[in-house]
Structure prediction request, 392 residues.
Amino acid sequence: MPERNLDFDFCPDRKNTDSLKYDFAKRRGYPEDVLPLWVADMDFRTSSYIEDALVDRAHHGIFGYSETQEYYAGIVAGWMKQQHDWDIDTKWILKTPGVVVAIAMAVQAFTQPDDAVLIQQPVYYPFSEVIEDNGRRIVSSDLVMGSSGRYEIDYEDLEKKITDNGIKLFLFCNPHNPGSRVWSKEEIERLGDICLKHNVIVVSDEIHSDFTFIGKHNVFTKVKKEFENNTIVCTSPSKTFNIASLLISNIIIPNPSLRRKMRKTKAAFGLSELSAFGYEACKAAYTDGREWYEAVKKYIWANYEFTVDYVNSNLKGVRVVPLEGTYLVWLDFKGTGLSHEEADRRIVNEAKLWLDSGKIFGKPGEGYQRINIACPRATLEEALRRIKDILY
Prediction:
């Protein structure tokens, strides 16, 4: 049966479906009629092969405890090999309901209360939340906006933060969210060598790894064999195939000692079997979803090109940070002369847009807005037009 869901100009009505993106504006303090382009899910139907797999499973009618057979791990390993030329041992895979859950598990497994955990702001805000909610301290080696207009790593500051704070755990965003950097092999190698030198465990969040447009995604452990000793790589089909609510992630941990600690922490969380629907969706995605994936990636890149053209032609003072990876565009509003508070106010209350204000990604994010471009072109055009209307 051919892939059916390739019309990305169409989005079913998502209101009244208990959608976090569409149905919770008022509860989150936004106008009810706001247009949402914030949280990282797509306004596209997923692959029809995933739909069919879920329907078939539902028709069975029994939803008892479920676990995966060995072939599930083989399917995951096959995707990693085909997509990233990464050979993994299927024993390395630990399944969790999500990447953020895995990061929280790592914080509990490898640090103690009041320990410092290293991040690089601006960065995906749940990093900060799981650190603070687990009674640990945030230490940030802030990324630096380079002369090329993209973020760079301050290696000297990073190493100093490690030594000054006794860092044991580093949460690394690869590719970077919200700055959309696709880190080079040389950047990761230099970073990884510093962490090895100081016995720092690296949790590499690679959930956006399938969405790279400029450069090539470099799996952290693949850059250097020694990095397998101190790295936990977090992967999931959820961003790639728009199935976040199905709660399935594959956490890949080559070091058996780290893997044992994570398994023990998972057990302490009370997690054992996950959802049968998550398993089915992952298998269908990685087995039959490539046509859909390639098509959606092409559509998103065209949306990015449209965004750049529109901003450059119509939004004086706004700069698009170059998109290398993810489908989340980082817009720099500092050239408009508006304070970040005033920009936030106008975007929410006058434009009636729900974007992610840069301030939630840490202080270095102030003055930026994150916009999700994985939506029909008409939706994106309307959002950009609304920004134009409240700026000029």
